[in-house]
Amino acid sequence: MKIKVLGSCSSGNCYLLQSKKETLIIECGVDLRKVMKAIDFNISNVVGCLISHEHKDHSKYVNGLMNKGINVYSSPLTFEALGIDERRNHRAKYIFSEESIKIGEFKVIPFKTKHDAAEPLGFYIFHPEMGSMLFATDTYYIDYTFKDLNHIFIECNYSKDILDKKDLPDTLKRRLIKSHFELGNVKTYLKNLDLTTTKEIVLLHLSDSNSDSNVFRSEIEALTGKPVYIADKGLEIDLEGYEC
To answer: Which of 22, 76, 88 shows the shortest CA–CA distance to 49?
Structure first.
């Protein structure tokens, strides 16, 4: 199993979880032509797409995916915000916080996140070939903790120290604080997890102007003792499997 990052920023987000037989797409905010090229145009291997929320950098190409025959999974209010009715489009699949679903061989448990969106979700994902993964982006905190995580993909959007030095409108600062994960809060969250089985931590959706990737990586590596990667476009990571 490997993960490919096609985009992890405000201009577009998309991640591919790929085994030899299956691909699960997470987010569809990147041009479909790039997605099709990344999967070698093998749509038959795609078991579905998860969308965390309706903002265009995560959902812009949802209709294009469904038109290609790919099932898309998200919360009811996210689909409503996108103008999509599950009753009229059988490719739109409602999912609910804390209710497990099976997508191909992927087991997915959605959970509520905190963002300025209709009904945003994060995802706990398990597959026999990779073990367990936490995926959480565009959230200023996570109320849930998880055991025995093998792979952690988590937003680390900005640093309060950097933000405080910027001459930005208060409304913009407040929106950042109430919609995105800050470095110190990410570190606090990671401290509350048992990272014994964690292979790596990948930081998602860094702000172009309010983050420092080198500082973020080094501070979280020092805190956790785990390899830390920044989810830049083109990043590929092999996700080692674990015995169940």
So the answer is: 22
Q: Are 120 and 137 a contacting pair, CB within 8 Å? A: no
Between CA 235 and CA 228 the distance in angstroms is 12
pLDDT digits (tens, 9 = 90+) for 49-71: 999 999 999 999 999 999 999 99
pTM score above 0.85 = yes
Q: Which amino acid appears at position 16 of this protein?
A: L
Q: How far apart are CA 79 and CA 227, in angstroms?
A: 36
Q: pLDDT digits over 12-35, tens only?
A: 999 999 998 999 999 999 999 999
DSSP 99-115: --EEETTEEEEEEE--S
Alpha carbons 111 and 77: distance in angstroms, whole number? 14
Give the DSSP per-residue string, 132-144. Answer: EEEEE-S-S----
Rounded to whole angstroms, how far apart are CA atoms 99 and 35?
A: 28
